[in-house]
Amino acid sequence: MLKAHRAVRIAVSLGIVGIATGVLVYLKLTTAGLQHPIFVYLPLIALLALALGSVAALSGAAAAIAAAAYFLYDPAYSFAIANTLEVGDLLWFALLAVIVVKCTRALSRRSGKLPQGKSRYRWS
User: CA-CA distance, 28 to 23, in Å (whole number)?
Assistant: First the structure.
């Protein structure tokens, strides 16, 4: 049951990243496009980490990297990337995605020590 629940969360994460990729491809085709489109996924990855967990968010980040390399960077519809600076974008995004997932999970966890903490200052 736990594996099925995890698989559903990963599938939802991949679906959300797919929808975001569709919007970014539409923007690329209709307008001049974005300068660094991969970084649009970062807030989405943070929200996925809060809502669905670390594994689903990191799966979404991996899918975002693959989708951006295939659809958003030139040459389109190929995993080959013409500009080496764009490879750097993908690598920095991978690093930032791991940091964002780790930070959002650490901030969203409830600490068991917090309610038990006592003030060391007396107010009387």
Answer: 9
Distance CA 61, CA 14 (A): 9
Distance CA 40, CA 101 (A): 15
pLDDT tens across 78-107, in order? 999 888 899 999 999 999 999 999 999 888
- Which whole-number Å values give the CA distances from 96 to 29, 101, 121, in the listed order? 27, 8, 39
Q: Please, what sign has the CA dihedral across residues 44, 12, 65, 22?
A: negative
| φ, ψ of residue 22 in degrees (nearest 5) | -60, -40
Positive or negative, the CA dihedral 95, 35, 46, 24 is negative
% residues pLDDT > 70 (the chain): 88
Q: At what angle do helices 2-30 and 41-52 cross, to 10 degrees?
A: 160
